[in-house]
Amino acid sequence: MKSSSSRRRRSREKLVGKVNWPSVHGKTCPICLENLDLRSSAVLSDCKHAYCLGCIGKWSRLRRKCPLCNADFNSWFSHISLSSGSFHKQHLPPLIDTSRKKPRFQEQHPPQRSVINGVHSRTRPLPWRRSFGRPGSVGDDVLAARKLRWRASIYEKRLEAVPLSHEQNILGNNGVKERILRRIEPWIRRELQAILGDTDPSIIIHVVASVYISFLELRVHTASPQLDMGDNFLAPLLPFLLDRTNMFWHELRCFAETSFTMETYDAVVEYRHSG
Which parts of the sequence belong to the RING-type domain (predicted)? Predict the structure, then answer.
């Protein structure tokens, strides 16, 4: 018995020292880019790629493919200790495909004929098409909930934004890229919350932002504003957004290619039935 127990212990110590430790040591989480710590990391059992336990935990509730190599996984090593050679192997339950229903929301068209002038190269003022409550009359949480229901209704009714601008976001340096990301990420977060019903879609925000930046970089290299996206380019979004992927991409581009804030864009964007 002692011999068998010793062999198991040596086997576990070998796994920690020769597999788990090299997977984590000096590495950053591919999702959040934070430095990995052995005790709070997860090493996927099959491909041995390592992530923050929290990041891969959220990811695993949506997909069971490694974000780095696309290999299937259904378990990981966590709570790893180099000193004691111990770890925990967590087996994941099967993914459950739940249908997502969103509450209906009637778009509000206020009686006033307020207008706002575009801050880009428009010659006509834009009509103020909707209001979600007078400033100061409702709390920020109420306002946010109303806007979230409105965004969900856009996808339920299969509407699409009428493009307000054909401005191109040009990537020149990291500063420009960071500015674009700071502007679009809050919009992406709200849109994903509306579509998925997930209060914390941080993992998917990272995926969407990466795809959009890659799109801008490709458009610069091809020197064509009418870049054909094709299914392959949007493939990383399909597992999350399913049949709403193309609708989401259209909405993202319509917002990103204006210079409006989210608040102004919400008020002035016009919608039509897609098709």
Answer: 29-70
Residue 136: the pLDDT is: 66
CA–CA gap between residue 194 and residue 36 (Å, rounded): 31
- Closest to 237 (Cα-Cα) out of 171, 183, 192: 192
**Residue 113 confidence (pLDDT) above 60:** no
| CA 24 – CA 41 distance, rounded (Å) | 7
Instruction: Give the separation between CA 52 and CA 50, rounded to whole angstroms.
Output: 7
Which residues on neighbouring strands pair with residue 35, listed in sequence order? 28
Q: What value does the mean pLDDT take over residues 82-102?
A: 69
Tokens of 129: 């098409």
C-beta neighbour count of 192 within 10 angstroms: 23
Q: Please give the domain boundaries of the chain with CATH numbers for all domains.
A: 2-91 (3.30.40.10), 115-273 (no CATH)
Mean pLDDT of the region 10-18: 58
